[in-house]
Amino acid sequence: MLSALILIPLVGGLGLILWPGKLESQAAKAISGASLLLTLGLAGLLATRFDLTASGFQFEELLPWVEPLGLSYRLGLDGLSLPLLAVNSLLGLVAIYISDPKLHRPRLYYVLLLVINSAVAGAFLSANLLLFFIFYELELIPLYLLIAIWGGARRGYAATKFLIYTALSGVLILGAFLGLVWLSGNTSFDYDSGLAAALPLAQQITLLVALLIGFGIKIPLFPFHTWLPDAHVEASTPVSVLLAGVLLKLGTYGLVRFGLGLLPDAWMALAPWLATWAVISVLYGSLAAIAQTDMKKMVAYSSIGHMGYVLLAAAASTPVSIVATVFQMISHGLISALLFLLVGVVYKTTGTRDLTVLRGLLNPERGLPFVGSMMILGVMASAGIPGMVGFISEFLVFRGSFLIFPVQTLLCMVGSGLTAVYFLLLVNRAFFGRLAIAPPASTPQLDVVLPQVSWRDRAPALGLAALIVAFGLQPTWLSRWSEHITLVLHQPYQGFVQARSRFVPAALPAAVADTALVAPTLAQPLPVSPAPVDP
Amino acid sequence: MTHTLSPATATAHPMESFIQKLLGAKALLPDSETNVLEVVGILKSYGVVLDAYSKNLIYIADHQFLVLFPFFKYFNGRVTLPQLLRHWWHDRINFEYAEYCMKTMLWHGGGKLDEYLDSDDFLQHCRSAVTAKIKTNLPIRALNALFPDFLPEQVRQLAYYSALGQFWRVMSDLFIDLSDAYDAGQVKTIPDVVAFIKAGLVAAAANPITYGVDIHGTRYDLLPKSAGLTFLMDTAVPYVEAVFFRGTPFLGTVSYNAQADQIDVDQARFEYGALYADPLPIGGAGIPPTLLMQDMRHYLPDYLTAFYRSQGRGLDDVRVKICQSFQKSMFCVTSASLQGLLPHPADTQNSAEQAANHKFLAGWMDRLATSRLDIVQL
Question: CB-CB: which of B260, B317, B375 is closest to A365?
Fold first, then answer.
């Protein structure tokens, strides 16, 4: 059944390739949309059959492939990957829905979108390190082409930069995987949380550093982020939605799954440095966002800041903070997708994203009042206003990390405050005041008339906004899938967490008890590991 | 080498072309088929709305005299449940707009009406009426004794109610007649429109403006005919000055946009009237499209509705379009007013009279320099 999530988009893509004669854009869109709707339905079906208390992979599928290399087609689903799979299908569907119906070469465009969806699903489902790497690399080429062919004026530069950075990321990840398996004396690349148990700490740290840089490029974290603003600015809106909403999550997912999950000793050793790195990334992303005058670049830099929260939460490795990593991934996926979507509508309608020029778009008669309202909702969610998913995810991140890294957590909270600063700048500049889409002219100008945004264009934003509010009001709808797997992932870190916890008696497994916040049924204390590691 | 400008160039007004247009019986608004359609169409709906405003203002002045809590003043004496429901539902004529205009005139004053309301003669008339009205009302008598200026000020306001009602009575009929003439093919160009309005203004120029109330069967004159107040100089001109040029910082008539730096640092330049109004609302209080635009929306002639529907966002931004058309029409009314107020005939051959006419118009053009005159040319 899991293979279907990978195969359905591929079959859809194959159908587009083999479609006889000229393929109209609408037909291509319908076929692609149907494929992803099917995968979304399938993800929903899997969710209904998902065992919330199972600790390992579920619905496993295994096909021996190149056994001498240790490569097997092994798929599995757990609470870490299920929500991300659903978001992948959902945002893929949104990307297809909002794609320009008049774009050139529709056959290639939609095939590439479907291949990306298939590859990302494969990466999230892979229970074999090499298989993950193959899928991780597979999404690279379609995304490169999507930016290089349908991008903006500097698309060649942005696409090449993206390719170079991400290829380097792939090399580092592959090197780490090979080192991990070979050094541990295994012959199989199948996912096993005990793979690195016998490795000396120095080797583990070396491998973890390679993974951190590899996934750090993809996330991206400072200072490996420079490809992202360029890629976002040049990419079309649907590609930006996918990039921010799903593809960056491959990096954070990899970090949690392979860094946190496979190399616990090294992770504990580097955790304080990772938390500090998260602070730098959060503050850098936020301060850089404040300085932007391109709306899309501002949202792109905000992504860099918000992805830093995932690193902080993962570094703390408490049950709550590990739930927070998943929550923040989904939350950021939905919010950034909404923001990029709306920026795209603004750009399509006004022809500019320049915050020094745009004014008064909230104008009820001639502006974009609905888009403006959704944008305000999106930035409020991003800034962590209660009632929306951003608040829950940031609260979980800070709540889960504070006892372990109080200083770093407080500094990240400053970053959260800065989110409000740059997004209020955005809203105030572009949406309030008198309507304008061009600099003031010395000659008289007719009053601006912007084309109206149809409900067809508003629908995806409305859907995403509804999810943002729904998960904000009822967070257990989202957290319930990941609660058990987070406890499993947390198990090797119990001693570490206990040793580093501040402000509470050492005997109290406070961070474990915290799980009751999101997982009332799973709040039973787990056995405390005998040897706390404190670097 | 120093060049000296020729006298003609040196004295040319920056808006000389507009001065020449007005002297040549043309208009401040360019002549085009769509401009005629917009102006006549919007004046038709304005005429309908003004009719309602006028009747209500006169009703309030005559029948709500010193009623300090006039709960049903917008009902013209006929209070029924359906009318109440409609009033609360707000699908109705916004008589508040008429009151804002009245208050604007009261505040800015101007003309002999303003002077007369400050005269002893008016005060005597006023006291008689007030005394009669509050004779049996002890609380109000106590109020009057404590604050003797309060009730006369209320009566001054009621005088403006009546004066504006009488002014709009004429204008409403004039605009409806204009629409009929357009429908009959007698008005085809913007200069025709201006000439029609000017003729109407001139014809009514000497109409007396009077006001009196019946209290317990006795008639009390407040603006007697003997005060010599007339339609053109004592209501039309102050109205144009107050509503077209100066404006007022209250909901419905505010025409400035503070966030767009449209408030002059020199507060003496009080230029927020209809000719300066920004038709694009920003969601703040009191920015056009005003209540007036909402009222006119219900009475647009079919051809104007069809025209709006074919432009830009169709009827979704109809209030902005109404405001733009209304502004165009007000430039026509201003053109007619200025032509009617010229100190000498426009076609005079006497150079002194020509100079006087030119100077008169140049003064007005100085004030229009910051208006939306340049935008309605586009």
Answer: B317
| Band of residue A293 on the pLDDT scale cut at 50, 70, 90 | very high
CA dihedral (A20, A26, A29, A34) positive or negative: negative
Note the pLDDT tens digit of each residue in B137-158.
999 999 999 999 999 999 999 9
B55 in a domain, yes or no?
yes
- CA–CA min distance A452, chain B (Å): 6
Task: Taking residues A408-433, report their average pLDDT.
Answer: 92
Instruction: Give the pLDDT confidence of A466-506 residue by residue, as tens digits.
Output: 999 999 999 999 888 888 888 888 888 877 777 777 655 44
With residues binned 3-state (H G I as helix, E B as strand, rest as coil), the percentages for chain B, rounded to 5, are 65, 5, 35
Q: Which residues, in sequence order, are CB contacts of A491 under 8 Å at separation 6+? A: A526, A529
Contact A433 B316 (CB under 8 A): no
Tell me whether residue B59 is in a domain. Answer: yes
3-state secondary structure of B211: strand
How far apart CA B27 and CA B233 sit, in angstroms, is: 21
Nearest CA in chain A to B281: A363
| SS3 annotation, A354-373 | ECCCCECCCCCCCCCHHHHH
CB atoms within 10 A of CB A423: 24
Domain range holding B363?
21-66+90-376
The amino acid at residue A355 is: L
State pLDDT tens for residues A82-109: 999 999 999 999 999 999 888 888 899 9
Interchain pair A364, B281: CB under 8 A: yes
- DSSP strand E in chain B: where? 211-215, 218-223
Q: Are the beta carbons of A360 and B282 separated by less than 8 Å?
A: yes
Q: Which residues of chain B lie closer than 8 angstroms to A458, CB-CB?
A: none
Q: Which two tokens stand for residue A42?
A: 């399938």
pLDDT at A278 over 90: yes
What band does B260 get if pLDDT is binned at 50, 70 and 90? low
Q: Higher confidence at residue A521 or residue A252?
A: A252
Domain count, chain B: 1
Neighbour tally for B20: CB within 10 Å: 13
Comparing CA positions, the residue from A366, A365, A434, A448 lying closest to residue B262 is A434
Among A71-85, A117-131, B1-15, the minimum mean pLDDT is found in B1-15
Residue A457 and residue A345 in contact, taking contact as beta carbons nearer than 8 Å: yes
- Put simply, whether A363 touches B (Cβ < 8 Å) is yes
Query: Contact at 8 Å (CB) between A62 and A43?
Result: no
CA-based end-to-end distance of chain B: 40
> Could you say which of A360, A362, A447 has the minimum Cβ distance to residue B324?
A447
Q: Is there a domain that residue B14 lies in?
A: no
Is B249 within 8 Å of B286 (Cβ atoms)? yes
SS3 content of chain A, % helix, strand, coil (to 5): 70, 5, 25
Residues 279-338 of B with CB under 8 A from A: 279-283, 289, 312-313, 316-317, 319-320, 324
* CA dihedral for A133, A138, A143, A144, sign (positive or negative): positive
What residues contact residue A338 under an 8 Å CB cut-off, 6+ apart?
A: A374, A377, A378, A381, A461, A464, A465, A468
Q: Cβ(A342)–Cβ(A353) under 8 Å?
A: no
Q: Report the residue of chain B nearest A454, measured CA to CA.
A: B313
Does residue B82 lie within any of the structural domains? no
Burial class of residue A489 in the structure, from the number of CB atoms within 10 Å of its CB (0-12 exposed, 13-18 middle, 19+ buried): buried
pTM, rounded to two decimals: 0.85
Cβ-nearest to A434 among B260, B313, B377: B260
- List of long-range contacts for A366-369, beta carbons under 8 Å, 24+ apart: A366/A435, A366/A447, A366/A448, A366/A449, A366/A450, A366/B280, A366/B313, A366/B317, A366/B320, A367/A431, A367/A435, A367/A450, A368/A450, A368/A453
With CA atoms as reference, report the closest residue to A188 among A68, A276, A308, A280. Answer: A68
